[in-house]
Design brief:
This protein is mainly beta. It has no helices and 8 strands. Helix content is 0%, strand content 57%.
């Protein structure tokens, strides 16, 4: 079936291909609910984010809605493996926990 170029490495004269369209891989916008604010920090803005235990910090922009009960998270880049029911934890610039919630929808 069709092959898509997903990476080029001209220094090694390599082209990496996949059967998955790179435009269809991953998500960069999703929503969380059941939000808790242990730090009391509840403003929309830039946060470091972790999804699932052990994931790397991801750069994100977060907008809170519905009296802070729902948030839309916009990642700097698309990532794979985002799923409904996973935990999402927001951290400030000092890597202190600001908020956490459950992923319940994505775009």
């Amino acid at each position: 079936g069709p092959w898509f170029v997903v990476e080029k490495n001209p220094d090694q004269n390599l082209i990496i291909v996949s059967r998955e369209n790179p435009e269809d891989i991953g998500q960069d916008v999703f929503e969380i609910k059941e939000i808790h604010f242990p730090s009391g920090e509840t403003k929309s803005g830039e946060y470091a984010l972790k999804i699932r235990h052990g994931s790397d910090f991801l750069k994100s922009r977060v907008e809170f809605f519905s009296e802070k009960k729902i948030a839309r998270v916009m990642l700097e880049k698309k990532i794979r493996g985002i799923a409904t029911g996973q935990s999402a934890v927001l951290y400030n610039e000092n890597k202190n926990v600001c908020a956490s919630g459950i992923i319940w929808g994505y775009h």
